[in-house]
Amino acid sequence: MAEKNKSEATVLEKEMIITRVVDALRELVWNAWVDPKQVVKWWGPKGFSTTIHEMDVKPGGTWRLTMHGPIGVDYPNQSVFVEVVKHQKIIYELSGGKAGDSGVRFRST
Length: 109
Known about the structure:
single chain; alpha+beta; 15% helix
């Protein structure tokens, strides 16, 4: 099988890696990720607010939220948790949120 060149790569083959070191206890960071009351305090771009409709943090669990933009536009999001290892790792896949729209698709670890 011939190797694809970069111009032939599909969106599914692209990867972006972003890391952040947080100077806090692991348990506090974990709770900031799994407690909906805490997530809404920091989730989303600057100027946005977030409403969480459902957040079932377990493998196969659904996470539905709406980000409210600063100019009044709402951005529905729906994700499924793929892997959850307490105090260590959360993997979820975002699959959009608008009915009938494939939306943005990505996996986050």
